[in-house]
Amino acid sequence: MTDNLEPLTPGEAMQMYLDERSHELADATIQSHRYRLKQFVQWCEEDGIGNLNGFSGRDIHRFRVKRRNEDELATASMKGQLATLRMFLRFCATIDAVEPGLDEKIILPTTTEADARTELLNPDRARQILDFLNQYRYARLEHALMEVLWHTGLRIGAAIGLDREDYSSEEQYLTLVHRPEEGTSLKNGRKSERLVALSETVCEVLDDWLSVNHPGVRDQYEREPLFATKIDRLSRTRGRTIVYQYTRPCVYADSCPHDRELDECDAVPTERSHACPSSLSPHPVRRGAITHFLKSDVPENVVSDRMDASEAVLDRHYDQRSEREKLRQRRRYLPEN
Q: Which residues form the Core-binding (CB) domain (predicted)?
């Protein structure tokens, strides 16, 4: 059945797919697809699959089991992973790399409302992480980034797209600007453009980061990024890794809730920090920040504007207040008589 197919490696197919979709999808979506397919390509390499021509439904099953059991992917994350793989295999069929209809063998898991908002960074844990960074990595890149992510609830793409000039130290706010032609787009385009207020504490960290530790580099568009490495603007991948790295309990609390020996744990190296069962990606940090604002009695319309998410989206995907908590908070706005 593979006589009509043309040999193609998973890595080459991934790049062809991303190149094709880049003309129709937002930059943030392309980055998401790249991240998910990178996991698939890596699995293929480890499994000795160098040509997609013979890829089958059984291989799909083995990959799914690996991501669910070994990588402990949550249901919602698994659904996103498989949805991207299905689109990828559908594309591969159009370029004679896999058998037509292979994508139809991928059955997406059913997610519930609870699945959509399981993981989040709670305030106590956030404080522990920030206290650790304040003491041991004060005003370094990771400290400045984590302070901003927790305090503002920004998406990681929006955070890395900030320039130095987008930060006003005197008036204490950030300016979010949609710049797709220069590689830093916002999730909802120009609708996402807004001013985001900062606290005095966050501004002190940013001021010291910029005056003492910022490398002063410029990106390929001659813009000076707010968050930068020694050579370029902070990448989405590196930003995610920082969050994974510093949400591991063994880092900020010097303990392991999973009873692992650190000298044997595969999640100790920074590049493997995502393998820690307790580490979090940037999105749970955003979810935790939003829930924290809502629990602090900040009106939903204010949180909606600040976090660039409609009230309906807040309610379904982010708000983890119980119905009793919502009732208690609503009572405060009722008249006495």
A: 8-93
Which whole number is the average pLDDT over 108-127? 71
Shared domain for 106 and 142, answered yes or no, is no
Per DSSP, what are the bridge partners of residue 225? 163
Q: What is the mean pLDDT of residues 111-135?
A: 79
Query: 166 falls in which pLDDT band (50, 70, 90)?
Result: very high
Question: Does 185 share its domain with 246?
Answer: yes
Q: What's the rounded Cα separation, in Å, for the pair 83 and 232?
A: 32
Least confident of 14-18, 62-66, 73-77: 73-77
pLDDT value at 14 more than 60: yes
Among 282, 301, 316, where does a domain finish? 282
Question: Which residue segment(s) compose the domain that 275 sits in?
Answer: 123-282
194-197 β-sheet, strand order: 167-168, 173-176, 194-197
Q: Which residue has the tokens 């600007």?
A: 177
Classify residue 72 as exposed, middle or buried by CB count within 10 Å of its CB (0-12, 13-18, 19+): exposed
- C-alpha closest to that of 209 among 167, 270, 267, 238: 167
Check whether residue 250 and residue 273 sit in a common domain: yes
155 torsion bin: left (phi>0), alpha (psi -120 to 50), beta (else): beta
The answer as to whether 269 is a domain residue is: yes
List CB contacts of 184: < 8 A, sequence separation 6 or more.
Answer: 27, 157, 160, 161, 233
CA distances from 161 to 62, 155, 236, 315 (A): 37, 10, 9, 27
Q: Is residue 329 pLDDT above 70, yes or no?
A: no
Residue 263 predicted with pLDDT over 90: no
Last residue of a domain, one of 86, 111, 136: 111
Q: Is the pTM of this model over 0.70?
A: no
